[in-house]
Amino acid sequence: MDFSWTNEQVIWRKTVREFAEKKIKPRVREIDTNRKIPEEIIKEMGQLGLLAPTASKEYGGADLDWTMAAIAAEELGRADISLAIPVLYLVEAAWGFILSRYGTKEAKEEYLPKITSGEAFCGIAVTEPEGGSDILGAGKTKANKKGDKWILDGEKIFISGIRETSKWGGVHLTLARTDPKAGHKGFSFFAVPIKDNKNIETTMFEDMGRMGISTGGFTMTNAELPKEHLIGEENRGFYYAMEGFSAARTLIGATCVGASEAALELGIEHIKNRKAFGKPLGRYEGIQFPLVEHYTNIESVKLLTYKSAWTMDKMYKEGKFSHKDVALAAAMTKLRAPVYGFQLMNDVADWFGAIGYTKEYPIEMGIRAIRSYSIGAEGTMNIMRIIIGRELLGNEFLPYK
Questions:
Q1: Phi and psi for 127 in degrees, rounded to 5?
Q2: Secondary structure (DSSP) of 324-338
Q3: Do domains 7-121 and 122-231 have the same CATH topology?
């Protein structure tokens, strides 16, 4: 058992941190206010290999392993407490990987080089108006084969990156039923381009946080796709989606760790210097003891996060673990990271007092942002509990069986 970092990992962390501190951190308030990530930052992220870095080098990626991907996610979260850039990063790292691993040669050649350079976006579209956590029972989007094409009909909602893919181009990996009688074995995955598609209508939502990246939905009416846009095998889409969600949950843990560390550093600086009744706030047990709890909690999340990333690396590189092992590790990470992060940020805001409720400090951006991860992004907290319970007790104990 070795908890140290390799030289390569140390250098990678230093490289990403220096870039994020110099290029991203000074502009976080601007990103949150303008609701847009500056194009020059996107371009520089692409040049550094931070856009879909887990994709194959053959198509412009960096073949980054999951430990290295988590390191980058943590450092981006530390610099951008609003989590807009970390969301962009983790979505493309998780789903760019799935496209690279299972997509057709034609689809990969068409989209991945543009995604990794920042000229296009790669997202995920699973949630529906009546089928979020219950996508298996309530998912209505369907895909029918017609000759050498697929025809998709249905609606996806609460999807990250709708504005980005509508403007830049790219694809959302979209889950659709191809065999209605086969349950979870009747879904397929498709690379759906939204930009300039007359058979797809988009809608936008205004989130309370993560303002620099958009959230919306799209409706497909007889949307036609070439056969090359099928991801992997027909009727295997559910499995590809679950694989991508495990990756995304692991990177969510890393971004939460980074943002939480940044918030705690702000708080520590404040309670060391701010005095009340003649003493620094940090001398009062009512503040010092919660600080200790928060620090310990985030350290435990960090261990869960990097264990999850390590488990994924062992599975993909050496075949030593199964997708079930990865799903368990990722769900535990996702169950703890946003909750502990939110609690920490909430207390840090209390330490600041009235000024913590203003935009003079970035803590309010973090509170608004990190809450999204426990509400639903990549699965609610109770879905994480169901996954963990399933792996501990077996499929026969699933509540919806």
A1: -60, 140
A2: HHHHHHHHHHHHHHH
A3: no
CATH superfamily entry for domain 237-397: Butyryl-CoA Dehydrogenase, subunit A, domain 3 (1.20.140.10)
7-121: CATH superfamily = Acyl-CoA dehydrogenase/oxidase, N-terminal domain (1.10.540.10)
Is the pTM value of this prediction over 0.70? yes
Q: Running DSSP on this structure, what letter comes out for residue 5?
A: P
Tell me whether strands 200-205 and 170-177 are parallel, antiparallel or unpaired.
unpaired
| Structural domain boundaries in the chain | 7-121, 122-231, 237-397
In 114-186, the DSSP E strands lie at: 121-125, 142-146, 149-160, 170-177
Q: pLDDT at residue 136 above 80? A: no
**Of 332, 335, 340, 323, residue with least CA distance to 380:** 335
Nearest alpha carbon to residue 224 among 157, 148, 114: 148
**128: three-class secondary structure by DSSP:** strand
| CB-CB contact of 83 with 32 (8 Å) | no
According to DSSP, residue 279 is labeled E
Please tell me what DSSP assigns to residue 131: B
**Looking at residue 399, what DSSP letter applies?**
T
Q: Which two tokens stand for residue 305?
A: 């996060």
pLDDT band at residue 137 using 50, 70 and 90 as cut-offs: low
- Asked if residue 131 has pLDDT above 80, the reply is no
DSSP code per residue over 172-239: EEEEEES-TTSGGGGEEEEEE--TT-TTEEEEEE--SS-TTS-EEEEEEEEEEEEGGGEESSTT-HHH
Is the pLDDT at 155 greater than 70, yes or no? yes
Question: Quick check: helix, strand or coil at residue 275?
Answer: strand
Q: Which residues pair with 144 in a beta bridge?
A: 151
Give CA–CA dist 213/210, Å, rounded: 6
Burial of 94 (C-beta count, 10 Å sphere; 0-12/13-18/19+): buried
Both tokens assigned to 38 = 């500056």
Q: Tell me: domain 122-231, CATH 2.40.110.10, correct?
A: yes
Element of type H or E holding 280? strand 279-280
* Distance (Å, whole) CA 327 – CA 95: 16
